[in-house]
Q: What sequence folds into this?
């Protein structure tokens, strides 16, 4: 297993320095690249924490590209996964830098950025052909099926279809009617009209027809690409669209055809961990010829937990029941039907059933099960609302989001829905067969209606099958109630105010992460906040992979290399910023008087004073609070105490957040107060003079009373042996360590380059003192945060700012 003493890679086939994008690497980059290369050669992974400025992106790309270009290596591509769009752009920029500085005898490194179908579909981009963001996926699949139907055993060829679409456009132009309008996107005109063309009254996609025309019968799909992308370096989504449209071919199909040929593929976690995406698009990348780079890897665990959890909405169950009825009814009333079309439908359904292993009785039993399941869901939601929100029907708009646990979160045992089904006579067979039944229903309806579209029955069947198959120790089942407003539902119905889902939560995704990582030949998992690395290796399945698969896992931590005199870091020993100490926000429910209220007021005053001191620093100041309610309180407390505009970030959409960020960066110095659970405290680059100080209040641990959170904590205790001597428990693994990483991400926004100057302040005694609930151990050994008392903070800040230019 490689350690600090690594082999000098310059002795191997070529040097990694040939593909390094800058004149000279940092010392940490040399160690990181060589460690990553040697570890991957042994089939292993490098877990790397590197402070901003380490050059992690260039480090990882260099190691991967070197291995791909080494003729003695089995690696054929680099797959980059990141959860942050800005980091995706950084990988693109560093790949351009590598290509711009390659030796003259090196060909450019080919790269491809993966995006969704909506981003590259020419019709969707221009809102043409009756395609928009709401229907692009279903409409695309339908058009593709229609196009294949016309060109397979149909009346024409793909070549003829594409030519027909071109001729329709030319015909309009030749007619002199003035109606010729070419579809244009990415600043490139296509050879087709804006409206979807038709052949014998059947709509089809001309871009996809051209792709089919170019596709070899038994060859590599890459041969269908009509332009040389391997010699062009990085191909961005807009460039891909422009080149594809120029040749009249489908950009999304081009993306898929190029996947196996690009040396660097840049995507997000969906492209490796989402079962639907890997099953339909990126599966070919998931093998041992791929060097994987997981960026922002501190987010790997929570993101994958979401991706491998599942659920089925009440509305989906309703639609699945309807679809089942539409398949069953033609058979039930076949004898009474005199219409030819009805008899044809019945014959079609019998034929499909005879070709499958699904019977009519199974269709009927599944429909009855889904109907009764919805009734049970309705009963449980109603009982919960009656119990927790008396008089709830009087004001449906005032209901909060809710979780209704279906078992004790701390006792892994069968859930209430499973037990209900057993009492009602629905055994494991109906659960297990629901997925097969749903697939047959979709096939029948698509055939009967001559239209391919998303059906509810397969999705419902898949979740019901997973509900039955998965255990109760690692999975937690509950009813999730998400606020909405549906005027089509009757007054007094909870369905008017809620989307309800039967939710199946994967509490411990380490197995799913580890199994997927095992598919790759090796790679790098990196972030500015991975410590403690031993915990990271456990919760991502790396340690299990090392023990069971004999695949090395090497750890590296690189601190800030920028001048120490340009920064100051404080941990303020203020009373813990917990609900017990601070109480509710002053205008919140539960605020009262007495000694407790006096203590709450003192705690809040201490924090407001500390943040105000930091906010007086020259330049922009970022304030991170545990949640949005506390952010609102702090913003109000600062106004009038700080001679700067105070901006407040509220839970909002991307557009509002981008506008707020622009306001913060523009003009005079300001204070921006936000939640540490928001999007402004990580993945945003506050380079240059955009930020001079950051202050974090409290340890942002999520609500520990939530049933789901309690279930996750219990599952981590069981999985990782919490509670033993010297071991960390589920609370630390599942709650404390992720919270500390959130705080460190926010603090890390300040110093982003060697010339930048600023202060970083953590306010809470858990950062400053060793105690039973101290979090100091979760910082790297290079931790620079010096403990100070609240009354000494201003002195330390003044001393620093007076000593810098």
A:
């Amino acid at each position: 297993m490689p350690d600090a003493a690594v082999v000098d890679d310059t002795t191997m086939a070529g040097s990694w320095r040939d593909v390094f994008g800058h004149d000279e690497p940092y010392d940490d980059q040399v160690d990181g690249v060589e460690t990553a290369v040697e570890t991957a050669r042994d089939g292993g992974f490098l877990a790397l924490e590197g402070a901003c400025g380490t050059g992690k992106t260039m480090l990882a790309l260099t190691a991967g590209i070197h291995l791909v270009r080494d003729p003695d290596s089995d690696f054929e591509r680099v797959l980059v996964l990141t959860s942050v769009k800005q980091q995706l752009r950084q990988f693109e920029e560093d790949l351009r830098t590598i290509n711009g500085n390659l030796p003259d005898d090196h060909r450019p490194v080919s790269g491809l950025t993966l995006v969704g179908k909506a981003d590259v579909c020419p019709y969707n981009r221009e809102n043409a052909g009756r395609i928009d963001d709401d229907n692009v996926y279903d409409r695309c699949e339908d058009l593709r099926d229609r196009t294949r139907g016309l060109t397979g055993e149909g009346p024409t060829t793909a070549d003829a279809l594409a030519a027909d679409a071109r001729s329709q456009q030319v015909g309009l132009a030749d007619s002199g009617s003035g109606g010729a309008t070419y579809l244009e996107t990415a600043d490139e005109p296509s050879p087709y009209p804006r409206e979807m063309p038709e052949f014998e009254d059947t709509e089809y996609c001309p871009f996809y027809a051209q792709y089919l025309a170019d596709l070899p019968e038994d060859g590599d799909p890459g041969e269908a690409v009509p332009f040389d992308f391997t010699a062009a370096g990085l191909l961005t989504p807009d460039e891909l669209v422009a080149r594809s449209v120029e040749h009249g071919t489908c950009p999304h199909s081009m993306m898929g055809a190029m996947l196996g040929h690009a040396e660097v593929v840049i995507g997000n976690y969906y492209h490796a961990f989402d079962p639907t995406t890997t099953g339909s698009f990126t599966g070919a990348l998931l093998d041992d010829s791929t060097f994987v780079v997981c960026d922002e890897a501190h987010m790997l665990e929570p993101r994958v937990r979401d991706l491998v959890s599942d659920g089925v909405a009440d509305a989906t169950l309703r639609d699945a029941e309807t679809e089942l009825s539409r398949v069953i009814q033609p058979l039930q009333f076949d004898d009474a039907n005199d219409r030819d079309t009805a008899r044809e439908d019945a014959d079609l359904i019998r034929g499909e059933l005879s070709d499958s292993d699904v019977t009519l009785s199974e269709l009927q039993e599944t429909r009855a099960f889904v109907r009764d399941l919805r009734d049970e869901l309705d009963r449980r939601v109603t009982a919960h609302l009656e119990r927790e929100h008396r008089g709830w029907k009087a004001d449906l708009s005032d209901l909060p989001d809710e979780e209704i646990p279906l078992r004790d979160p701390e006792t892994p045992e069968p859930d209430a829905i499973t037990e209900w089904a057993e009492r009602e006579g629905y055994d494991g067979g109906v659960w297990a067969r629901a997925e097969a039944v749903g697939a047959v229903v979709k096939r029948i309806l698509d055939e009967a209606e001559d239209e391919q579209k998303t059906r509810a029955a397969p999705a419902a069947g898949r979740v019901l099958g997973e509900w039955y198959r998965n255990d109760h120790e690692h999975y937690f089942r509950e009813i999730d109630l998400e606020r909405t407003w549906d005027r089509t539902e009757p007054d007094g119905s909870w369905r008017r105010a809620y989307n309800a889902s039967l939710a199946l939560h994967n509490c411990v995704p380490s197995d799913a992460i580890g199994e997927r990582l095992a598919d790759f030949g090796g790679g790098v998992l990196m972030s500015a906040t991975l410590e403690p690395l031993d915990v990271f290796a456990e919760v991502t399945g790396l340690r299990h992979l090392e023990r069971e698969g004999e695949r090395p896992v090497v750890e590296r931590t690189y601190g800030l290399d920028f001048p120490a005199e340009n920064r100051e870091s404080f941990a303020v020993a203020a009373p813990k910023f917990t609900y017990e100490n601070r109480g509710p926000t002053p205008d919140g429910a539960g605020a009262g008087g007495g000694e407790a209220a006096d203590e709450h007021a003192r705690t809040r005053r201490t924090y407001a004073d500390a943040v105000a001191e930091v906010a007086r620093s020259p330049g922009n100041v970022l304030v991170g609070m545990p949640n949005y309610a506390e952010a609102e309180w702090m913003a109000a407390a600062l106004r009038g105490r700080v001679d700067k505009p105070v901006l407040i970030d509220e839970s909002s959409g991307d557009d509002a957040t981008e506008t707020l960020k622009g306001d913060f960066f523009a003009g005079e110095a300001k204070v921006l107060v936000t939640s540490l659970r928001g999007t402004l405290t990580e993945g945003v680059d506050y380079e240059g003079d955009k930020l001079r100080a950051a202050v974090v209040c409290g340890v942002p641990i999520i609500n520990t009373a939530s049933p789901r959170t309690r279930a996750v904590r219990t599952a981590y205790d069981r999985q990782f042996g919490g509670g033993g001597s010297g071991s960390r428990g589920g609370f630390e693994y599942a709650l404390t360590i992720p919270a500390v990483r959130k705080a460190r991400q926010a603090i890390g926004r300040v110093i982003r380059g060697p010339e930048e100057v600023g202060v970083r302040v953590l306010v809470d005694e858990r950062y400053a003192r060793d105690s039973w609930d101290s979090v100091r151990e979760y910082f790297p050994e290079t931790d620079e945060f010096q403990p100070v008392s609240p009354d000494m903070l201003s002195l330390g800040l003044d001393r620093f700012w007076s000593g810098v230019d």
Summary: Confidence is low (pLDDT under 50) at residues 1-13, 171-177.
